[in-house]
Amino acid sequence: MAGLDAIYDMKLRVGWGKNGNQEGIPNYARYGLVSYYRRAATNPLSGPSSVQVTYGNPDLQWETTTQSNIGVDLSLYRGRVNFTADAYYKKTDDVLLNVQLSNSLPITSIQTNAGKIENRGLEFNLSTVNTEGRALNWSTDFNISFNKNKVLELNYTDVYYFGSTYSNNSNVAMVREDLPLGVFFGYVADGVDPETGDLIYRDVNENGIFDPGDRKVIGDANPDFTYGLTNNLSWKSFDLNIFFQGSQGNDIFNATRIDLEGMFDSKNQSTVVLRRWTPDNRDTDIPRAIGGGNVNNVLNSTRFVEDGSYLRLKAITLAYNINPKRLERLKVQKLSVYVTGQNLLTFTNYSGFDPEVNAFGRSATELGIDYGTYPQARTVTAGVNVEF
Question: CB–CB of 351/236 below 8 Å?
């Protein structure tokens, strides 16, 4: 490769390994736990009592993930351009899930190892030194990741449901073989009937009636790809760091709209309901007000599935470094003042407060559900950094 002057360094990598995961297994999971309490003195059976709160599973074990990957590291033009690419395949056995039991039992779920899941994807990273050794120094880092997820096998039951929405008493997330984790399950909404003002649900199974069999996969919370872009600039005594982050192709189930647009109880509503169906306003996409706790117009459906793609200015920091010669008398090696802003700008078509939130935290089975979720704060912080 002596004749390839542009290539400064190149490395090919192949990797294989196994990892165990115990996250999500509570203490004493192999035992059936019992809670003790005291009955009130007014109870004829007053005194100490107990109730079982979990079923133990002595066969419970860690998840095991086997991963294979191949990658390349390429450095060009004496390290001014660096490129990294990785392709990977991950298979997770003994996936931890809570298996649903009969509602007639006092405890309706038990944690067990219930299946297999695969992840496969590509990751790319590009770092460049755009200018160097001048008044302005500028470097850029860009990364992008593509991941596809699929459930390979489920034990004990064919389908698991998660993501409970209490307003309509149903679950929106589904786990099933040959589907990704985090898909949404519900009805297909075909607009508002101009005659009745009620939402029209598609007869998916074509049996001539509206029934639970009309439900299908209506969205996927997994993005097509995620990406990030960081620029670092320095000019004289000033440093500027700008970080953008984004996600593309993921869906969000905006369950918050169930309560804000449902008009089935006494909750405050959003201004969207001002254009609801009435006898004088039949051409609209907002169904009529029903009240009385009737949730027929707010069943989990495509009505609440939105594009969750976004690009966000995640962080920006501007710093000013005091000349070290001015600090010699104070015996200070470095003194800088800075101001940092986080979540300052977000570009998205999502109608909710924040496209980067999930009502169920880090759950892998309940992705992309916005259900009254508090948005991330937009913050501005100023400070002083001193090194002695």
Answer: no
Lowest mean pLDDT among 65-79, 239-253, 293-307, 353-367: 353-367
> Given the DSSP bridges, would you call strands 251-254 and 369-370 parallel, antiparallel or unpaired?
parallel
**Location of structure tokens 């609209």:** 284
- Separation between Cα atoms, residue 283 and residue 86, nearest integer Å: 52
Which tens digit of pLDDT belongs to each residue from 214-252? 999 999 999 999 999 999 999 988 999 999 999 999 999
Residue type for position 305: V
Percent of residues, the chain, with pLDDT higher than 70:
100
| Every domain of the chain and the residues it spans | 26-59, 224-388
Residue type, 34: V
218: its two tokens: 């209506």
CB-CB contact of 326 with 317 (8 Å)? no
Contact 146, 120 (CB under 8 A): no
Residue 200 and residue 287: Cα distance in Å, rounded?
10
Report the first-to-last Cα separation within the chain, whole angstroms: 47
The whole model's pTM is what?
0.88
Query: Order of strands across the sheet with 115-131?
Result: 7-21, 63-76, 81-93, 115-131, 136-154, 225-235, 238-248, 310-321, 334-348, 379-387
pLDDT score for 363: 86
Q: Which residues pair with 148 in a beta bridge?
A: 120
